[in-house]
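Fold it.
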Amino acid sequence: MATRQVNNSIYDELGSRWYDAKDDPVALLRAESRERTPWLAQRIQERLGGEARVLDLGCGGGFLSNDLAARGHRVIGLDAAPDSLAVAARHGDAAYVAGDAYSLPFGDGAFQVVCAMDFLEHVERPNRILAEIARVLAPGGLFFFHTFNRNWLAWLVIIKGVEWFVQNTPRDMHVLRLFLRPDELATMCRTNGLRVVELRGSRPRFDRAMWRMLRTGVVPDELQFRATRSTRLAYSGMAVLS
C-alpha cells in the first residue's frame, strides 16, 4: 500500500481566500493565529526585549509575519509557494522569500527567533528542518513551534472532524503519520541543541461560534481558540538554543 502523502499544493490555490474565506479551513488558521501570536510576541519581549530578527518558516499568507512586523520586529517570511508569498506581501510589511526549509538561504546565527507554526506536520524530515533552524539561530535564540499530536483523538478531531464540519476541506490536508508527539519533538530539539522550555496545548472554545460552525460548515469570525494544559490535540511551544 502506498504511503499517504500530505497535500501541500492546496496552499498554492488560496489567493485572497487566505484572508477572506470563511467556508474553508484556512479560517481556522486565522483563528489559531489570533490566539497564539500575542503569547509568542510576549515571550519575545520577555526574553529578548525590543526589536528582534525573526524568521517565519512556512509563513503561508503571512498572518504571523505581518503581525510581528507591525510590532516592530525585522521579519522574513519563507515559504515554497510564491502565490502565498504574494498575498502575504500585500497584507503587511514583513519581507518575503521563496525558499526550501531543508536548505535555508541564510547564514549561521542570522536570526534571534525562528518560528515554525502549523508547519512541521507538513514535512517528511522534521529533524532536518530542526537542524537548519538551529544553524540559523544565534546562541540563546528562540524557536517557536505549533503542531499536532499523533494519536487517535487528534485523527478524529483535527483530520476527520475538520473534513466533516468545515466546508471545502481538501483531502489529505493533514495525514496522521506526520503528526508529532511532544516527546518526539522534544527529543529532536535536544538532538539539535534546542531545549524546550514551554509547552502549551490548544483547542477551540466550545461556545455559540463553535456550534454555528458545526451546524453550517462556515467558520465564524468570532470563533476563538484557547490555551490548555492538555497537549493531546494541538500544542505550541518555545525552545532555546544552547
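The helical segments are 17-20, 26-47, 63-70, 82-90, 126-136, 152-165, 182-191, 208-216.
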